[in-house]
Amino acid sequence: MKLCGADGKVDGDLGHCWARRIAPPNRCGPGIHKPASTSPLSGIKGDTLIDIGTGPTIYQFLSACESFREIIATDYADQNREELQRWLKRDPDAFDWTPVVKYVCELEGDREKRAEKENKVRSRGVQVLKCDVTQPEPLAPQAVPPADCLLSLLCLEGACKDLPPYHSALKNISSLVKPGGHLVLYTILDETFYMVGQRPFSCLYLRQEDVEEAVKEARIDFSFSVTDAKGACIVVARKIC
Ligand SMILES: C[S@@+](CC[C@H](N)C(=O)[O-])C[C@H]1O[C@@H](n2cnc3c(N)ncnc32)[C@H](O)[C@@H]1O
Q1: Is the CB of 57 under 6 A from ligand 1?
Q2: CA distance 54 to 57
Q3: Mutation pick for ligand 1 pocket among 3, 61, 75, 171 (CB with most ligand atoms within 8 Å)
Q4: pTM of the predicted structure, to 2 decimals
Q5: Domains annotated on the chain, with CATH
Q6: Whose CA is nearest to atom 27 of ligand 1?
Q7: pLDDT in tens, 203-227
Q8: Residue 26 assigned to a binding site
Q9: Which residue, 26, 44, 50, 106, is the most exposed by fewest CB within 10 angstroms?
Q10: CA of 53 relative to ligand 1 center, distance in Å
C-alpha cells in the first residue's frame, strides 16, 4: 500500500494507509482548520484530547496541540501506530509531513514556525494506543483519563459494516469523553467505497440524518453540524452524562 503526500504524490509504503484523505491545501478538514471563528474546533480546549482511528497521520494534531496539554492517538492497525511512532521519534524513515505542517503554520499566521509546531506536537507526550471501536471499552486494558475532547476523523464508517454496529461504535467511543466534554466527528456521506492505490476499501453508506441519529442515541447533545463541502459531515457535540 502506498502512502500519498498531501500533494497526492505517492511518497512512501505502508500496510494500511489513509493519508490520501488529507484535505488538499484549498480545503480544510476539521483537523486542519483556519483559525477563524467558523472553525469547528474554535473554543474547544482542555487537558486531554483522544483521537480515535488516527491512522498514520499527524495533521489532526497540528492545531489541536495549541488547545490540549495531552494528546492520545489510537488505532486498530499496528502499521499505523508504528508509523506514528516513527514520526514522533524523528525516525528518518518516517513520512515527511513538512508541507502539511508549513501549510497549517501559514493558516495560523507564520509559515516559518514549522519546527516549533512539530516540537509542540511532540511535547504533548503523544501516547499511541491500540484501539478497537467495536468493543465496549475501545482502549481496554489501557487506562486513560476521560477526554475533554474526542476526535474521530473518517474512522467509524470504515470500521462498521452496518448502522447498528455504527451506533454501538459511537456509544463505545463516547464512553471515553468526560461529561460536558466534546465530540468532533468527521464523516464522509453517501460513500460506499474508496481506493488507496489499486486497493478498494468498503465504507458504510451514511446520510447526514444517520450520523445525527447515532449521535443522539449515544446521548451526546447534538450542537451543530458544519461543513462547506457536499458529501462531508462535521459534527461538534457535547456529552450530556
Ligand atoms: C480512513 S482512516 C482515517 C485515518 C485518520 N483519522 C485520517 O483522518 O486520515 C481510518 C482508520 O480507522 C482505523 N480503524 C479501522 N477499524 C478500526 C477499529 N475497529 N477500531 C479503531 N480503528 C479502526 C484504520 O486502521 C484507519 O487508520
Answers
A1: yes
A2: 6
A3: 75
A4: 0.84
A5: 2-239 (3.40.50.150)
A6: 55
A7: 999 998 899 899 888 877 766 555 5
A8: no
A9: 26
A10: 4
